[in-house]
Design goal:
This protein is of the alpha/beta class and 310 residues long. The protein has 7 helices and 9 strands. It has a 9-stranded mixed sheet with strand order 1-2-4-3-5-6-7-8-9, with helices on both faces. Strand 3, helix 1 (67-74) and strand 4 (79-83) form a beta-alpha-beta unit. 47% of the residues are buried.
Length: 310
């Protein structure tokens, strides 16, 4: 009796640093041709043409707090542009309009800021955001501000629409499945501890009814959903933020008990796999490997990841 042929083991390298050396650069708003908001650019230095990701930070956070996550993504062959959208909290519409202005700046302003022989491919432009920045990214993709460029993929990292006492404006959640009028592929990465509260932390960072679950449910296919079960809303940020930000993170957020590096690698790797699948001529091998074996992810993904195809 012939034995069944063993299936080859699934594998991916997206959870390790990639093969592209990278550099980081801060660009302020002081000069002619400078961006409308300060930006952090993380870019490969090897000669070539690379897709671009616009990354929007979360509530009262600095773009530099995400540097390790953004470096992981860039090391796989992507240019990341992370504006400091605000220091003093703006209204929701003002935040979205600022993100749109930075998007428009990319057309003529980004290329002069890149290393020699590194080309930005704005035909493969992704939009991503975390927390309140995830909400802003969804609103921008929904057309709440006009941009001269088109996005090819949208990623929300633990997006939050406020809470029952203070909904973010514009309030885009409808509680109607597949209601978002977004035609590009969307991926939502949530956290298992974001909706949690404790005795001395009574307000969840990503409360139920306003978090990743609702955003994913309202996406049209193709859309994907991943949940990092044992990590919290800010656990993909750098280990060291600032004294004040570290204090706020520990006082108000339910955080994972383990080191944050596996969480950054997990979020960064999932982002890379999605970007490769939808911006690099359908390089789906890494995404298919993760969907086929979620244990490849450095942190526990639960429930099982979902990918709903068009």
């Amino acid at each position: 009796m012939a034995m069944a042929e063993a299936k080859p083991a699934l594998a991916t390298t997206v959870f390790s640093l990639g093969n592209f050396p990278f550099t980081s650069k801060k660009v302020e708003t002081s000069n002619r041709g400078s961006p409308p908001k300060p930006v952090l650019i993380v870019t490969p230095t090897t000669s070539g043409q690379y897709p671009v990701i616009l990354f929007l930070h979360g509530f009262f956070l600095r773009n530099g707090f995400y540097s390790q996550l953004l470096e992981h993504i860039s090391s796989h062959g992507f240019i990341v542009v992370a504006p400091q959208v605000y220091i003093i909290l703006p209204s929701g519409p003002e935040e979205i309009e600022s993100a749109a202005r930075v998007t428009d700046w990319l057309s003529n302003g980004l290329q002069p800021q890149l290393p020699e022989n590194v080309q930005a491919n704005l035909l493969k432009l992704a939009l991503a955001g975390h927390s309140r920045g995830g909400q802003a990214a969804f609103a921008l993709a929904l057309g709440y501000a006009n941009t001269s460029l088109k996005f090819s993929v949208l990623l929300g990292i633990d997006p939050v629409a406020g809470n029952e006492f203070a909904k973010l404006e514009p309030y885009i959640l409808t509680n109607v499945p597949r209601s978002f009028n977004i035609s590009i592929p969307v991926t939502v990465i949530g956290t298992g501890l974001g909706p949690k509260k404790e005795l001395l932390k009574p307000f969840p960072s990503a409360p139920e009814g306003f978090n990743h679950v609702q955003y994913f449910n309202e996406c049209k296919p193709p859309c994907a959903h991943f949940v990092t079960k044992d990590y919290g809303h800010l656990d993909m940020l750098n280990d060291k933020l600032s004294d004040f930000a570290d204090l706020m993170r520990n006082l108000f957020c339910v955080n994972g008990e383990g080191p944050r590096d596996p969480m950054r690698k997990s979020v960064g790797g999932i982002v890379v796999a999605i970007l490769k699948a939808y911006t690099l001529e359908g390089e789906r091998g890494d995404l298919e490997a993760i969907l086929g074996d979620p244990d490849l992810v450095p942190v526990k993904i639960e429930p099982l990841p979902e990918l709903i195809e068009a």
